[in-house]
Amino acid sequence: MEAEGSSTHHSPYSLPPIRFYNEDILLCIDIGLESQVEMKVSGPKGRPITRLESIKQAILLFVHSKLTINPDHRFAFASLAQVASWHQKEFSNEVGSAIAALRGLVYSHSPQGNADLTQLFRIAAHEAKKSRAQNRLLRVILIYCRSSSKPQYQWPANQKTFTLDVIYLHDKPDPEKNCPQDVYDSLVDALEHVSEHEGYIYESGQGLSRVLFRLMCVLLSHPQQRCVQDDVDVPKSLTKKSPSVEIIPAEENIPVSQ
Q: Domain 22-224 belongs to what topology?
């Protein structure tokens, strides 16, 4: 995993004049056991907040913000247990529809091995054809939560009909329990294998909701308008010092005539 905020200097980014399409965005949320891990923040009255609950909040922020930018973007939802399956199949630009879909999203308690992303890619490829016929663009945002289970998939290398973004929430590395670096590398490989436009992948093992929200805000960027991820220098750190302000000593203050 690369250090947060690292970047490489490249030539200035330019955007060629092309037609930009409205997006159909399929959000696929990991509902496996590790989505129940508690975040490092608490809710009202100290109630623990799980990864899945934070993910739901972050998605609502994303939907509201994306529709503020362009009310013609649409959203659908899938869940990932051992394989991906539809949760809300119809794409909609109604916030109420997104709220209802997220409210009905619950953890999977069934035993799970490695997650297989093949079905997710099949769903996305099928929907991408329908979106393209309507002069729209399909994007998949996968939110993955497993620290010891690398995703698997089978997909033709020359079939790239949709864009894939990934946010990976994981535990700290532990040689006896998990291997988040290996999982992250597998997710990078999957993204590069299937993504039509520039796909972004971000990870966090901090357990902080605000980091998740910040990463979701970066994914507001339209796939056709993106620079390569190495050139992304947002979001800026809020901990950086503000420019120092020179203060004039009181005895040097100049009186103002009345």
A: Rossmann fold (3.40.50)
Distance, CA of 189 to CA of 13 (rounded, Å)? 25
Q: Are 107 and 52 in contact (CB under 8 A)?
A: yes
pLDDT at 2: 53
pTM comes to: 0.84
For the chain, give the number of residues.
258
How far, CA to CA in Å, does 246 sit from each of 7, 50, 71, 243, 250?
32, 45, 45, 10, 12
pLDDT in tens, 23-75: 999 999 999 999 999 998 777 777 889 999 999 999 999 999 999 999 999 99
Pairing of strands 84-92, 74-80: antiparallel
**What percent of the chain shows pLDDT beyond 70?**
82
CB 168 within 8 Å of CB 201: yes
Q: Specify the pLDDT at position 83.
A: 93
CA distances from 194 to 26, 148, 162, 219 (A): 15, 23, 7, 17
Kindly report the backbone phi and psi dihedral angles of residue 179, in degrees, each rounded to the nearest multiple of 5, phi listed first.
Answer: -145, 70
| The residue to which tokens 């996968």 are assigned | 142
Contact 142, 149 (CB under 8 A): no
For residue 108, pLDDT beyond 90: no
